[in-house]
Amino acid sequence: MTKHIIWDWNGTLFHDVEAVVDATNAVFKPYALPELTADSFRAVYTRPIWVAYERLLGRPLNEGEWELLDGGFHEHYFRLSDLCPLAPDAELVLAGWTGTQSLCSMAPHDHLVPKVESFGITTHFSRIDGVVFGTGGEKAAHMAAHIAAMDVDPAEVLVIGDSVDDGFAARHVGARAVLYTGGMTTRAELESTGLPVVDRLSDALDYA
Questions:
Q1: Rounded CA gap, 161 and 156, in Å?
Q2: What is the pLDDT of residues 76-117, one digit of tens each?
Q3: Could you tell me which of 71, 156, 145 has the C-alpha nearest to residue 104?
Q4: What is the percent of the chain with per-residue pLDDT over 70, rounded to a whole number?
Q5: How far apart are CA 138 and CA 176, in angstroms?
Q6: If we measure between CA atoms, which residue out of 123, 149, 148, 168 comes closest to residue 8?
């Protein structure tokens, strides 16, 4: 039985696909690559993000190149994401869940918290954790720290996210997971995990 839901933010509760694609195009413009669409970026997207960047370039990143690309991406992304809404049924789902909820994101913590507050949904969460040092890595250790900071039994936790990495992080801590198609990962790749896959956040609650 699920007593606690851990939500992902980017691509799950926060519908920021357009901002991610446009910021990626902006930061890769000097490389003269074909402009990405949401679908063409989904075809190479993975975590850690630097692996997706290496897929785009067709080569390993040079020393220091990841830091430059990541810094440039976030500069564009923070500006573009100001226009992005919550997922269509996010507020309804958050308000309708009767258990406890928290938010565990790989977004920078000092940007995440005010962004969540701007939508007036902070009170739904018992805890909000973004990353404090670095971005772009895998989520498993961050998820473990998030759960360790709360009085919850992983066996009673459902993780709802939009990436394969969310599923891996849930398994790492002993929680269940449902994956949502609203983000940057293709349905086929989400389904390859063997986890339930949904097209609406409200459908994810069926697994709680």
A1: 17
A2: 999 999 999 999 999 999 999 999 999 999 999 999 999 999
A3: 145
A4: 98
A5: 18
A6: 168
